Amino acid sequence: MRTVTSFLTVMTYTALTLGATAASAALDCVAAVEVELDGTYVGDNTGLPDNVTRYGCSDWNETGGEVVHHLHLGAPHFFAVSLSGACDLDLAVLDACDENLGCMQVTDDGIVTSGALAGDFYLVVDGYAGAACAFELTLEDLGLPNRALTFGQVKALYGRDRSRVR
Question: In the chain, where do the E strands start and end?
């Protein structure tokens, strides 16, 4: 545990020396709720700590408490995540437990992947401008397309253009 704390301290120091300002404590993923595709999860961010006020890929004011969910995909999947609640909650999608380096997208109500993804993802429900309420987070496995793919879609799935490799 000391190593992790020391590493976070070094990262904070490095960020400060590069001119960035540390607005809040780091995202806390220790108690992340494990989630799976094709599941619906109910939660509430009322009264929870506000460890993150901004994410690296967004300038939105996220001063509500966070509820962190962890999704592990051992194989590539297309998937959708939707968020609903009675107040102004946002969904931050991260590929690492780091609000700056892991930030992929912050959205109002959900995402649909445009490519098949695998690995670890952190789905963070956060309150915009201090918003706090109960919510429902739904994850849906969209499967792989059962139709012929265009060259561009295959390229998006598997990486760089290999048609010119000799």
Answer: 33-35, 39-44, 66-85, 89-94, 103-107, 110-112, 117-127, 134-143
Residue 2, both tokens: 């000391």
Q: Give how far Cα 45 sits from Cα of 50, 86, 87, 101, Å.
A: 9, 12, 11, 23
Q: How many Cβ atoms from other residues are within 10 Å of residue 40's Cβ? A: 11
pTM of the model: 0.74
Q: Enumerate residue ranges in the chain where pLDDT < 50.
A: 1-25, 161-166
Which pLDDT does position 162 carry in this prediction? Answer: 45
**Parallel, antiparallel, or unpaired for β 117-127 and 110-112?**
unpaired
CA-atom Rg of the chain in angstroms:
18
Instruction: For residue 112, give both structure tokens.
Output: 């649909």
d(CA 46, CA 33): 16
Residues β-bridged to residue 66? 126
State the pLDDT at residue 144: 77
Q: Give all domains of the chain, ordered by start, each with its CATH number.
A: 23-144 (2.60.120.380)
